[in-house]
Amino acid sequence: MSTVRLKKGFDIQLLGGIAGKDIALAGPPQTVAVVPDDFHGVIPRMEKKEGEHVNAGEPLYHDKNHEVIKVVAPVSGTVKEVRRGERRHIDAIVIAPDKQDDTVKLDLNRDAAEVLLESGLWVMLRQRPYDVVPAPDVRPRDIFVTAFDSAPLAPDLDVVLDDKRQYIGKGVEVLKRLTDGQVHIGVREGQTIDAPGAEVNTFVGPHPAGNAGVQVANTVPVNKGEVVWTLDIVTLARIGELFTTGQVSHDTVVAITGEMVQEPRYIRTIMGSDLETVLKNELTNVAHSRIISGNVLTGVKIEVTQWLRAPYRHITIIPENSAPDEFMGWASLNPKRFSIYRTFTTWLRGLKKPVSMDSRIKGGERAIVRTGEYDAMLPMDIYGEFLIKAIISWDIDKMEQLGIYEVAPEDFALAEFADTSKLELQRIVRDGLDRLRAEMS
Q1: pTM of the entire structure?
Q2: What are the pLDDT digits (tens) for 289-304?
Q3: Distance separating alpha carbons of residues 317 and 29, to the nearest angstrom
Q4: Distance from C-alpha of 85 to C-alpha of 164, rounded to nearest angstrom
């Protein structure tokens, strides 16, 4: 075991953290949905139609370019709706659950990759470069598992694992069949993981220490022409459970956090459950709340009428524009105003105390100024400001030289929060990766 100490980054302390580790049980969901946008790089082609019955673990659709990549139903029931948006883009596949426990049993006497592809767990993996669902015909150099989340109000993944911790060893065994390299697991200081056969690294430092990309960059970085896979410890345990029982478990433990939550806590539910069931009696003021599937930096804004998004173990609820008529707006001299920098007097009382933040951007987009803000929030051997400029100007040579193959949008999330230029850095990186992938294919 090695220890990596990171100095760059910042821990954002927000109101609404979870005090205990108890897990409450949510009621049975009225509907469950799969959102194709959660699995970037997969172009859906439906296998089920509206009105058809589907069993838990049975494919709903496959990838247009790789038919072996399947996305499966988390529950048994009837396909209630295939919701489409502009240009017939599939926004969500809604299932009305029945009370049957019909879960597909898989044959484990096959290649591990085939089982993962059929089970639907393959789409929970991500590859670098490009931060997409891995292609089934590419063998990774190494596989990296992050065992903790350092984002604001993030859940303790040891709690989320719950009784699935017993499957971690089996999960490592399966992953080692898929790579000729190592399976690396990144843990925080003081965290213990029983994972024979894996190389365990301890990461000490502020957010984004828990990001898979940061852990990769500070152990064995990705070079041009190399491919690595990333996943979290919960997905690793699911893989181990699959290869132990022959069935995929779609139950999940979700952290409900934020200052607009009556009692922040962990809740056990089904992946893709409707939020009206999950958040029943949880919100203090629905009309003035912003609901985020995920954390405040990388999560997706959703409505209470929508569903829990599959890749997230976290729901954050913060005030929605709590002071629209604040005197002087973003330039207010309010002594309670938070700032990473010493722009306001808040720093006098320290930055370790939880503070209230709403959804306002507090400023407008302006030109990039070389202040070193990005570098201070990015603990990777990358010049963030120069890389962003190279992506905007679409200079492929510079993008490659500056490390485009190592990064994902989430790696720039903290820099986006701290950016005085108010640029959408995650969107810029996402667009750059997608264009580069199309250019290189």
Answers
A1: 0.94
A2: 999 999 999 999 999 9
A3: 20
A4: 37
